[in-house]
Amino acid sequence: MSSRESPLKQLVLNLLLGLAILVMLFPFVWMIMMSLKTQVQNTAATPVWFFTPVLDNYINVIERNNFLVFTKNSLIVALAATVIGMVLGLPAAYSIARFKQRGLSLWILVSRIIPYITFLLPLFLVFTKLNLIGSFTALIASHLIITLPLIVWITIAFFEDIPTDLEEAALVDGSSRAGAFVRIILPLVAPGVITAGILAMIFSWNQFLFSLILGGPNTKTVPVAVFNFLSYGSQDYGAIAAAAVLITLPIILLSLTVQRYIVKGLTAGGVKG
Amino acid sequence: MSVAPIPTPTRRRPPNRSFSSWLDRNIRWVFPMPALLALFALTILPLIFNLVLSTQERSVSDALPSSFVGLGNYLGALKDPRFWNSVKLMFQFTLIAVPVQMLLGLGLALLLNRTMRASGLIRAVVLLPMISTPVAVALIWALMMDPNLGVLNYFLQTLGLERSLWLADVRLVIPALAMVDIWQWTPLVSLILLAGLQTMPDEPFEAARIDGASPWQVFRFITWPMLQASIFAALTLRLIDALKTFDIIEVMTQGGPGSASETLNVYAYHTGFEFLRVGYTAALLSLLLVIVAVVAVGVNLLRRRV
């Protein structure tokens, strides 16, 4: 189509696209700039655009605010919820794909439409009764609500792409179905499994509400830690920006590897509460 | 013509393989079962429990006895001005955010569709807002919207406009929050619509060009009808999520100033986890669920009409 556009029209449309991208990027650029400025520069009446970057804010956040401990907590929860989600979800996704059990994928709809806080209230009461509030068990279980449907939904498409011949050949050779699943099919869908795993980890990492209510002092995840840090009246803008950069950075790096599937993940899994 | 059945050789399995053969025969329900049980325990059961809770007068603490109140909590909600305020704010937020992001998302999709050859980097940039941790997004925007030092007021002044209180202004707080939602989710709308645009066949466009159709006519009579499925998919998704928005609002304003940005989700959170009124909160959540479901079903009924 662009071949028929006049140079003027092309210029205008490219400028519009450039503007849109600038608007999308600006908050990130601004956040990074704030994180590298001193408190004096950040509180200047007119924004300071040119400055010598300092790393004090990062040192402050990492050393004084236990950021690494919270990062470790987030990683434990995200990894466990992803691995358990896969152990439970991959056989289910395979079965749905192979036997066309479309009805089963309705379960994903439940987790998509219902506000997370509706699950959270009963889970909070049950976990309180079981003395599990503040434990990794409670956090990982609640994060399964995010990771499991997502893993099932994403990998169904990958399982559907595997030709049945390979599996049938294995069955003829005397392999059991479960054996064929583990030895033949899983290796073939490895790229899909990795994609689903990375997306599940991203969504678990981003999760705020479950971690806020079900977490405790020893299991506080990064988003909750940063939220508390802010709500205790911190006026240290540079540190807040540095914390925001530190939460976002791993997600950006991970997401670049699964770019193509992110929209599918967002439309299937649901990211917010 | 009749064909004699070919006798299948009966393979004799050793006894220790009986579990394996049982598994083979029942694999279509054995394989999904663990996931179904987990999801039942984590989503369906809590949902049912929430309904039960909504009929009780009950506090988180076991020290206070709980009692059955039937529909009392629901009737209480219908008489609660703060409930109605929260419903109003929820719809205000949604009705500002979603139409704007649908329009901007369509525009962006059409722009991206022209230049998809240079797309790798652009696509990566477009993904950034929607994959970012909501708490981080809320923090960045809260800093940018600071009435005294925020960079947004600096931009307004540079453009010769009045400074704004943003989140501190009772009338502006919902539009300001909607603005963050628009920034974050317009990219998703545009990527869904872009996927729709890129699967369209070339022939109708060629034919229209030969017939001398204007760009508007091409859009109205060719692009739009073919894009409808994607548009309704994006619209449904965004309506559902906008109604449920929690992280951004709770982090940026905690429902304030006063209760000027206390949407139903946020109100339920405060009654549940600050005031610990479990039964009433459960009723609020059931009502929220009904509203979201009605909107989702409504949009899809509309889709069949159009």
From TrEMBL, chain A:
Superkingdom in the source lineage: Bacteria
Q: What is its main location?
A: membrane
Family matches, as SUPFAM superfamilies: MetI-like (SSF161098)
Species name: Deinococcus deserti (strain DSM 17065 / CIP 109153 / LMG 22923 / VCD115)
Keyword check for Transmembrane, yes or no.
Answer: yes
State the membrane topology: Multi-pass membrane protein
Compartment list? Cell membrane
Listed InterPro entries: BP-dep_ABC_trans_perm, MetI-like, MetI-like_sf
Task: Name any Gene Ontology BP term.
Answer: transmembrane transport
Q: What is this protein called?
A: Putative sugar ABC transporter, permease component
One Pfam match, given by its short name, reads BPD_transp_1
| Family (UniProt) | Belongs to the binding-protein-dependent transport system permease family.
- Name the CDD domains for this protein: TM_PBP2 (cd06261)
Q: Where are the transmembrane segments?
A: 12-33, 75-94, 106-127, 133-159, 180-205, 237-256
Would you name any one GO CC term?
A: plasma membrane
Q: What keywords does the record list, in alphabetical order?
A: Cell membrane, Membrane, Plasmid, Transmembrane, Transmembrane helix, Transport
Record domain ABC transmembrane type-1: where: 71-258
From TrEMBL, chain B:
InterPro entries in UniProt? MetI-like, MetI-like_sf
Q: Which family does it belong to?
A: Belongs to the binding-protein-dependent transport system permease family.
**UniProt subcellular location:** Cell membrane
Q: Which residues form a coiled coil?
A: none
| GO BP terms, alphabetized | transmembrane transport
Domain ABC transmembrane type-1 residue range list: 87-297
Q: Which Pfam families match?
A: BPD_transp_1
Give the record's membrane topology. Multi-pass membrane protein
This entry carries the following GO cellular component terms, namely: plasma membrane
The protein's matches in Gene3D superfamilies, at most eight in alphabetical order, are given as: MetI-like
Instruction: For this UniProt record, give its keywords in alphabetical order, as a comma-separated list.
Output: Cell membrane, Membrane, Plasmid, Transmembrane, Transmembrane helix, Transport
Q: Which residues cross the membrane?
A: 29-53, 89-112, 124-144, 172-197, 218-240, 278-302
Output this protein's name: Putative sugar ABC transporter, permease component
